[in-house]
Amino acid sequence: MDPLKYLMEKLVEDGKTAKWVLLLSKFNIKYVTQKFVKGRAITDYLAHCLPKEAEEIQGDFPDKDIMGIELEPWKMYFDGATNQNRSGFGVLLISPKGTHIPFSGRLNFPTTNNATEYKACIMGLQVILGLGVKELEVYGDFALIISQIQNRWKIKEEKLMHYYECLQ
Questions:
Q1: CA triplet 36, 40, 44: central angle to 5 degrees?
Q2: 110: how many CB neighbours lie within 10 A of its CB?
Q3: What is the pLDDT of residues 100-136, one digit of tens each?
Q4: CA angle, corner 136, sides to 135 and 139, nearest 5?
Q5: What's the confidence (pLDDT) of residue 26?
Q6: What is the pTM of this model?
Q7: What is the mean pLDDT of the chain?
Q8: What are the structural domains, with CATH classification, of the chain?
Q9: 150/122 Cα distance (integer angstroms)
Q10: Is the Cβ–Cβ distance between 155 and 125 less than 8 Å?
Q11: Among the listed residues 152, 79, 149, the one whose alpha carbon sits nearest the alpha carbon of residue 113
Q12: Is the Cβ–Cβ distance between 155 and 164 less than 8 Å?
């Protein structure tokens, strides 16, 4: 609700409001609701435009520029953690429009920190594949996993080979 409309149309009950109404009444203010201008301004302009001018306007907006828009890829941040009691992971997905989709999970079996990191990455990729994402940037804080996935480092633990094959 507009405060001016409220002051001018309602009965005054307290002293401070009465002073404001008295001061504003000197200016002969009338409240008028604002109408939508955006669409009306465009239609008024086009209505006054000659057909030749309309063709010139149409040439200013080629479709090839619209088709050249590049979308950013999705981003995935993952992390896993293990302690003596339990293991868990967290994944954050960020869409090209900036929507954040966080999720996390707990592993109910004993595992190493390396395996937990792999599991976090695998779970994030499974969700991304389920969403039908075509382009993705993946970020992790564990150099071992990132380097093994990029084939820069060899896998020494046989337990991790299953996770590595799943990611490939």
A1: 155
A2: 10
A3: 989 888 888 888 888 888 888 888 888 988 988 888 8
A4: 165
A5: 77
A6: 0.53
A7: 75
A8: 3-67 (no CATH), 74-167 (3.30.420.10)
A9: 15
A10: no
A11: 79
A12: yes
Tokens representing 44?
A: 């008024």
**Predicted pLDDT at 46:** 64
Residue 14 in this model has a pLDDT that exceeds 60: yes
How sure is the predictor about 75, in pLDDT bands with cuts at 50, 70 and 90? very high
Distance separating alpha carbons of residues 87 and 159, to the nearest angstrom: 16
User: What is the C-alpha to C-alpha distance for residues 119 and 112, in angstroms, rounded to an integer?
Assistant: 11
Task: For residue 116, give the H/E element and its range.
Answer: helix 113-131
Q: Which tokens is 32 given?
A: 């008028």
Could you list the beta-strand ranges (E) of the chain.
74-82, 87-94, 100-107, 136-140
Q: Give the residue carrying structure tokens 């009338």.
A: 30
Q: Which amino acid is at 99?
A: T
Nearest to 90 by CA among 136, 163, 147, 139: 139
Contact 7, 17 (CB under 8 A): yes
Residue labelled with tokens 């564990």: 142
* Angle, CA 135 vertex, CA 130 and CA 141 arms, to 5°: 90
Residue in the structure block whose two tokens are 């009444």? 25
